[in-house]
Amino acid sequence: MHANMTARDFKKAAVIGYPVAQSLSPLLHDHWMREAGINGQYEALEVAPDALAAFVKNAAREGYVGFNVTVPHKTAILPMLDTVAPLARQMGAVNTVKISDDGKLTGFNTDGIGFLKHLKASAPGVDLTKPALILGAGGAARAATAALLTENIPLLMIANRTRAKAEAIVRDIGRGRMTALDWDDRSDAVSAAGLIINTTVLGMTGQNPLELELSSAGKGTVVYDIVYKPLETELLKSAKAHGLTVVDGLGMLVHQGAAAFKIWFGKDAAYDAALKKKLLEALGC
Ligand code: NAP
């Protein structure tokens, strides 16, 4: 940094998590900062749970314009912020914090925005007036649910190994348009769904595949797997074999990052071929 530059001329952003080394966010934001000619840097900071409050308290003084928040801090950070945007409050999770010039911290959640944007970009024919089936009830399911319910989806069916967690989502954010199913009944719901989403860890490298019988799926059904390592999961392979439209998880990651970039810098960030190539290399694909 030049001596006559103020801390906020040099744009510092970061992702905080524990662990954080696996995060692809630095790759995304370094790419976009360079493309937009922004003078700054994006850091990956390992912040242990007992160090979170101190990090949040000092972040403005340290010159950050904002930061991303990942596991395990997405919920714990809420009471430490000055303001939380309505969607993030509804999800009970923050993944992006903006620090204003007067040092105030506002929390947002861009995971749901990224989820929906990638869906519409990759499967423009998706029928969001039909019921949807969501598998899993963790943090990613909450984000996807809140985003989907901003659309005209008439019914969102949710199945999770631990049924009580699916019921909690129905209660917390279901808006009267959600119902919980038993995990073992998930394949029975396939025929009614225009959109099927995997938000569990099943299918990730090192995990068992997600077992779902797709033979009753209607023509035009979209299968969206938010797992991105591997990019083509067994679920997506099976969906393709059944002639269904597939959406992989990488674009959700990119679009949630792009929404955070816009919040901090007011600039659009593109998901172009050069960025995709870098991400695939980083993932070893
Ligand atoms: P999480 O809060 O820990 O939730 C994990 C979910 O997986 C829960 O529903 C859990 O069910 C289920 N699960 C775990 N092991 C299972 C098993 N053996 N059988 C059936 N279900 C099982 O995690 P998360 O943050 O929601 O993330 C979930 C997945 O989404 C991860 O693969 C993550 O990489 C991916 N993700 C992708 C993006 C993206 O941008 N593409 C963003 C966020 C997350 P129980 O409740 O029964 O434990």
Question: What key phrases describe this protein's structure?
Answer:
single chain, 285 residues, alpha/beta, Rossmann fold, six-stranded mixed sheet, six-stranded parallel sheet, 9 helices, 32% helix, binds NADP nicotinamide-adenine-dinucleotide phosphate
- Going by CATH, what is the homologous superfamily of the largest domain? Leucine Dehydrogenase, chain A, domain 1
The number of domains is 2
At the fold tier of CATH, the topology name of the largest domain is Rossmann fold
Query: Spatial order of the strands in the main sheet?
Result: 2-1-3-5-6-4
Distance between the termini: 36 Å
Short description:
With 285 residues, the protein is of the alpha/beta class.
Task: Walk me through what this model shows.
It contains nine helices and twelve strands. By secondary structure, it is α/β, with parallel strands linked by helices. It folds into two domains: 3-109 and 252-282, Leucine Dehydrogenase, chain A, domain 1 (Rossmann fold); 112-248, Rossmann fold (3-Layer(aba) Sandwich). It has a six-stranded mixed sheet with strand order 2-1-3-5-6-4. Strands 9-8-7-10-11-12 form a six-stranded parallel sheet, sandwiched between helices. α1 (25-35) links the parallel β1 and β2. α1 crosses α8 (250-265), α4 packs across α5 and α4 crosses α8. The longest helix is centred in the last third of the chain and has 16 residues, at 250-265. NADP nicotinamide-adenine-dinucleotide phosphate is lined by residues 111, 136-141, 160-162, 165, 199-202, 204, 226-228, 249, 252-253, 256.
